């Protein structure tokens, strides 16, 4: 199916850093059936500060990707449940399904077993990560009524800093799970 609409988001760091040369954009692309088709994360690193996981990793489903540079997607469903996706430029990934806020223990979402990362394009100053959902996730999101979403990133820098980027920050500390940090899916 062909893409009929997309929405672009500028992610901002939790803490404002005056000399920050790191910019992150995310875009959400929908198919003609209004299904969430693909997500594109664009990292501009003009100062070459970011530690980018190499694509020489094992391309595996892995818990704890937020301990390295990682792009994240949060999808809130109409029933209040939500999905968290973690993706790295090293092609490692994971998806989690939460029935309640920060539900523990952390459970991998079993509906998907294949890596949804479609492509990673890396250059000196610009990196693109493209996530494309398989039909079973698209169908699930239509059936369960995707209500809102959030695009986020955890950025590790060469000087040892960890930066937290999101479409919207609503808590006193970086908290990508906070329900108020989601924006409506239109």
Quick rundown:
The chain has one helix at residues 135-143; strands at 3-13, 22-31, 36-45, 70-77, 82-87, 93-98, 117-122, 126-132, 146-156, 162-166, 183-184.
Largest sheet: 11 strands, antiparallel
Number of helices: 1
* CATH C-level: Mainly Beta
Choose one word for the global shape.
globular
Task: Annotate the secondary structure layout.
Layout: E1 3-13, E2 22-31, E3 36-45, E4 70-77, E5 82-87, E6 93-98, E7 117-122, E8 126-132, H1 135-143, E9 146-156, E10 162-166, E11 183-184
Antiparallel strand pairs: 1-2, 1-10, 2-3, 3-8, 4-5, 4-9, 5-6, 7-8, 9-10, 9-11
Defining key terms:
single chain; mainly beta; Immunoglobulin-like; 1 helix; 11 strands; globular
Structural overview:
It is a single chain. The protein has 186 residues and is mainly beta. The protein has one helix and eleven strands.
């Amino acid at each position: 199916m062909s893409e009929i609409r997309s929405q672009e988001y500028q992610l901002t760091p939790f803490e404002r850093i005056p000399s920050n040369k790191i910019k992150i954009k995310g875009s959400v692309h929908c198919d003609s059936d209004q299904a969430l088709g693909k997500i594109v994360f664009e990292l501009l690193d003009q100062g070459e500060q970011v530690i980018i996981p190499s694509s020489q990793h094992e391309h595996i489903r892995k818990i704890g990707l937020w301990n390295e540079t990682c792009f994240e997607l949060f999808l809130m469903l109409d029933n209040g449940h939500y999905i968290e996706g973690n993706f790295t430029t090293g092609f490692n990934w994971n998806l989690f399904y939460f029935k309640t806020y920060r539900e523990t223990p952390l459970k991998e979402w079993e509906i998907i077993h294949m890596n949804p990362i479609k492509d990673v394009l890396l250059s000196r100053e610009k990196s693109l990560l493209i996530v494309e959902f398989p039909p079973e996730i698209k169908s699930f999101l239509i059936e369960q009524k995707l209500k809102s979403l959030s695009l986020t990133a955890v950025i590790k820098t060469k000087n040892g800093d960890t930066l937290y980027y999101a479409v919207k920050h609503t808590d006193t500390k970086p908290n990508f799970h906070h329900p108020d940090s989601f924006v409506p899916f239109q």
